[in-house]
Amino acid sequence: MHDFATKVLTARGTSVFSVGQAGFIIKSSSGQLLAIDLYLSECVERVEGNSGFKRLLPKILESDELKFDVVICTHPHLDHFDIDSVPEMMGGGTKLYVSADCEKLVKQLQMEYYSSAITYVGPGDHHTVGDFDITFVNCDHGTGAPDAVGVVVEADGKTIYEAGDTCLRLDRIEEIIQPLDVLIAPINGAFGNLNEGDCSVLAENLKPAITVPCHYGMFASHHGDVGKFYEIMSLKKLPFLIMQQGEEYKL
Pick from 48, 51, 107, 189: most CB atoms within 10 A? Predict the structure, then answer.
């Protein structure tokens, strides 16, 4: 077992863990686990056949090392719906929530055996699983993933908003449950995503207790300058946390 899996299992209280790219784990105080957009394999480079998608961050977790109560894939891009890992994360009562345009991947992977545990979601959908109240919200990832969603997770009185892959849409922020304890948002500025400055503007408007950037460091082709983000957020005096891969943030 990787040291990271042990760290998650032994952590106490309510926590958010960074797994790399756009992947995060939320652990409730009772020990239940929710995963969002975990990329644990090297399937993107294999499928794309492009060295720009070579995995640059180490693997810190295998797909069978933790038993998740909830797995969420915000859209069908393979660094968010890991086709090598998602099927192995199922079973034993795990609930899988995926955007509507993930259905093709589910069928390709012959995951119909888990059909009763799979729910296709869209903006406005709400589900409660154990300690987690989950609300799916709009995001704008362009025509490549028109059904992509963001997700707001409430656990133990704390609220975490994972914006998903999206451009800046201030016209939609009223649907985000507030106040926010954590905002997680991309900074790579490629493929229609928020860049470093966009993320700071979103933080200015949502006023979370802390903003955590994501979607940088995994692939050369995805860009994302965490140093630039640091400078912008520091200049604006906005609270932020740049998480190491495998780091825990206690709520």
Answer: 189
Distance of CA 247 to the CA centre of its chain: 15
Nearest to 21 by CA among 10, 35, 7: 35
Read off the pLDDT of residues 12-30 as tens digits, 9 standing for 90 and up: 999 999 999 999 999 999 9
H or E element that contains 158: strand 158-162
DSSP state of 199: H
Distances (CA, A) of 107 to 37, 68, 113, 118, 147: 19, 22, 10, 12, 17
Q: Which two tokens stand for residue 3?
A: 């040291």
Amino acid at 229: F
Residue with tokens 């869209």: 122
Strand order in the sheet with 33-36: 118-121, 95-99, 70-73, 33-36, 23-27, 15-20, 248-250
Number of Cβ within 10 Å of residue 65's Cβ equals: 16
Please give the biggest Cα pair distance in the chain: 51
Alpha-carbon gap, residue 31 to 233, rounded angstroms: 33
- The CA angle 72-89-246, to the nearest 5 degrees, is 75
* pTM summary value: 0.97
Q: How far apart are CA 22 and CA 39, in angstroms?
A: 8
- Residues of the chain above pLDDT 70, percent: 100
Give the CA angle between residues 244, 14, 71 to the nearest 5°.
75
Query: Does the bond joining 87 to the residue before it have cis omega, within 30 degrees of 0?
Result: no
